[in-house]
Design goal:
By secondary structure, the chain is mainly alpha-helical. The chain is about 80% helix and about 0% strand. It has a single domain, classed as Proton glutamate symport protein (Orthogonal Bundle), CATH 1.10.3860. Helix 2 packs across helix 14, helix 11 packs parallel to helix 18 and helix 16 runs antiparallel to helix 17. The protein is globular, with a radius of gyration of 21 Å. The two termini are about 35 Å apart. The mean pLDDT is about 85. The protein binds aspartic acid. The site of aspartic acid has 16 residues, from helix 17 and helix 18.
């Protein structure tokens, strides 16, 4: 049985087991035992992915960029990558805003309804200006500190510089180039081994997710959750596949078959960064994208390109505006678009990162940052689908870049 199928089966059993554990007839000690073991296996899997993440991101980008030289396509690769990132994110925001207007989420509810929930909650203050400042500060760092602290953005930037230097002046550092090349191959070997654990890790993560979801707020916010999930899936199942077909000529079915392990891992881990190793494996092994392209696009996309997060934040901002009873003007909606774009670029690919940057989006148009307290309890569940679409956006971009830069 292929790993791809085993991951799918693992995910299926994870959900079934999680639902079963929610039944009140299940013995408490048994439930606790299963959840404890699931917690252990899940942490082990995530721990392994995180272990390989930084060496993989560094070597893959450095080698990816350095090897572009051979293709004489360096400029086209980054130009198409940036264009794809910008276009898909803009489309995601438009889809999110459109759906929020269409379904008028939050209409009929009012902020007063959540008063008790918001009581005593203080949102971390984060204005757009401060956010931009922290983001810029995080770009350039001592590379050793960045590697040790796992500051992905700084690692990505340093690796880009190293890759560019190797691409331009490669003949001066053949040993280093070879070293990084081998380092990257070694990392992928380790990823291959870690992936053997993926079916169990994903099963464990899903058991915990499904069994532990608290249902109190879920019912009140059911409409919002349903509309956000539906719209995110619409972007992931209609908009992105359409773009993929138009610009890369890949059929949605072939894409789904190859991308399945990465999408399921993104769903289960809620982290595009932790999913990077799986995303790269799927693209290279099952979707025939060259390591140079994936090495460049995937780590960059996991940090910068977040369709699902952008779509969610746009919808959530309009939802809160409805709760407050504020009619946002066209200008205010434009401000939301711009801050959401910034927020999705700045959010790191970790669970609930979007919640932190959401504060800035709310503040940009004077909405109460405390309203975040309403969104937090339901975030774990919404984070699954939006991370999946975040990763899908990176995969679609990789395939388009591959198609547009290789002779056909
Ligand atoms: N969890 C998301 C990701 O890793 C980020 C977010 O919270 O929106 O892609």
């Amino acid at each position: 049985m292929s790993l791809n199928t085993r991951i799918f089966i693992g995910a299926f059993f994870g959900v079934v087991l999680g639902i079963w554990l929610r039944q009140s007839s299940v013995d408490d000690s048994l439930r606790e035992g299963v959840l404890y073991s699931a917690g252990l296996v899940g942490s082990l899997f995530i721990g392994l992915l995180k272990m390989i993440l930084i060496p993989l991101v560094f070597t893959s980008i450095a080698v990816g960029v350095a090897n572009l030289r051979a293709h004489q396509q360096m400029h086209r690769v980054w130009q198409i990558t940036v264009l794809c990132f910008a276009c898909t994110t803009t489309l995601a925001i438009a889809v999110g805003l459109g759906a929020a207007h269409l379904f008028q989420t939050g209409q009929g509810l009012s902020l007063a309804l959540f008063q008790e929930h918001m009581h005593g909650f203080e949102a971390a203050q984060l204005t757009s200006a401060e956010f931009l400042q922290t983001l810029v500060k995080g770009i350039f760092m001592n590379p050793f500190a960045a590697l040790a602290q796992g500051s992905i953005l700084a690692v990505v930037v340093f690796a880009l510089f190293v890759g560019i230097a190797l691409a331009i002046k490669g003949e001066a550092y053949p040993q280093l180039h070879k070293l990084f090349d081998e380092g990257f191959a070694l990392c992928m070997q380790l990823v291959g081994w870690i992936m053997l654990l993926a079916p169990y890790g994903i099963m464990a993560l899903l058991v915990k997710l499904v069994a532990a979801e608290n249902s109190a707020l879920l019912t009140t916010l059911a409409q919002f959750i349903a509309v956000v999930t539906g719209t995110t899936l619409f972007h992931g199942m209609v908009v992105l596949p359409l773009i993929l077909w138009l610009f890369a000529r890949v059929s949605p079915l072939a894409f789904w078959r190859g991308a399945r392990p990465a999408l399921i891992t993104a769903f289960a881990t809620s982290s595009s960064s932790a999913t990077i190793p799986v995303t790269m494996t799927c693209l290279e092994k099952d979707l025939n994208v060259s390591p140079q392209v994936t090495g460049f696009v995937v780590p960059l996309g996991a940090q910068l390109n977040m369709d699902g997060t952008a779509l969610y934040e746009a919808m959530a901002a309009l939802f809160i505006a409805n709760l407050v009873g504020l009619d946002l003007s066209l200008g205010q909606q434009l401000i939301i678009c711009i801050t959401v774009m910034l927020a999705s670029i700045g959010a790191p690919g970790i669970p609930s990162a979007g919640m932190v940057t959401m504060v800035m989006v709310l503040q940009s148009v004077g909405l109460p940052a405390e309203a975040i307290a309403i969104l937090l309890p339901i975030d774990r569940i919404l984070d699954t689908v939006r991370t999946m679409v975040n990763v899908e956006g990176d995969m679609v971009t990789s395939l388009i870049v591959q198609r547009q830069t290789s002779p056909h």
